[in-house]
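QA checklist item 7 of 12: single-chain prediction sanity check.
[x] sequence parsed
[x] length recorded as 483
[x] structure emitted
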Amino acid sequence: MAKVHFIYFDLNTGYFPSLHHGLAYIFGMLKSNHHEPSLSHVTNQAGLEEVIGHLENERFDFIALSFTTNQKKYVRSFLDKAKMKTKLLIAGGVHCSLLQEEIFKEFPEIDAVCVGEGEYPLKELCEKFDSQTNYLDTPSFYFKTKQNLIKNPISRLQDINSLPPPDYTLFDYAKIISNNDQCFPMMLSRGCPFDCHYCCNHAIREIYPNKGEYVRFPAQDKAISIIKSNLKIYSDVRKIALADDTFTLNKKWLMDFCRVYKEQIRLPFLCNARVETIDEQVVKSLKDAGCISIDFGVETANVWLRNHVLNRKHSNAQIKKAFCLTSQEKIKTFSFNMFGLPFETAKMAKETFNLNLELRPDFGKCFYFYPYPGTKLYEKCLEYKLLLDNIESLSGYLESPCLKEIFITHKEIKKYFNLLQIFFYARLVFSKVQVPAFFENALLKILFLFKDPILFFLRPTASKGRATKSRNIARNFAMKFLR
């Protein structure tokens, strides 16, 4: 049986290491067909050096790299140092699916690129290898040979009910779940029908011959079976994070799921939602099933920026209503935001900050906009020459703004980014102890006066010992008392 070693690059993201749902489903597929997947989950520089040493002493049939756009510089460092004993070096993931054959130019060492979902293509590749038949015609793979580039057709999207359950056991799942206050992240559905211009979904969807079937929800018995299968590997799970792009997208499916989940699982859970999908019936069903927190993408408060640049077609009134309905049912709210967007001004950034003050979410997160190759907003950035010359050196969307200072300065972007960070951690405490709104505003003004020493401990990319430790404590507090 084929031995495939996966290397998942997960360094300096500003997040704690987490489970990778796509890889877990691939592991499940390969194991169920008697192949031998193994994993190196690289979360820091020391881990990268350890993997390099490991590969010098082990031989694998294939080595498969999984990485995002933000991780490219670590992949480059790895390839410069690693001496691998393998017949084929494969790359996959969203970045590879967006760039496809361009990956061979970025990384000449790579022999093959898996484009799109990888469960069935990797299974077929391993089967052809085992039977010693020609694997260069494997669907969804591009191969670079000494003679030419082979571009095979992309496989059709498959019925997700036919997939084996995901297998998270190759990860250090006990540590990851424990660090998340015993919260097990899972993913049930696939795809997103919306065309947000900063997101990869609209670009990824186009690569498939049956792109109309891009959004897929499992049958109810399959969904519950996946959850039960996951829970078997770790008995101390206290809550579940359902990481589907928009868990509330299909209202009928959601109503049925909530009913069955309440009967058979009965664990508190978190989920992601779009504000357009929220109404009283949805929120009440989620609450009745055990939902304790909903994550919403606010992104920006400026209507023109949201509608015409991000292509998110909803109003501030809809955002406020969704937060209000959710809070009324005593479900926690989480707000995602971005700063440093193309064409964003200081006035627009301030609007985003002020909208969050009005929403009063229980917690939240803000990011610097990062343009992903293949997306419509990336193309817009190229068209208007907005990208920094050194953008390749940036490793994440928590590190620094990545656009030129044309409409707003980096100092102004960082100002609102930092103020919103402080606000979110303050809200975490205020919502827990139920500080009255008028008193909360006074306390916030005091906190903002001391923003520099506070940010020393909250800055997501801080690397100094005390700052890192304090940030971990703050995050654990957030996971325990909010989630």
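[x] summary fact logged: The chain has two domains: 3-151, 174-481.
[ ] second reviewer sign-off
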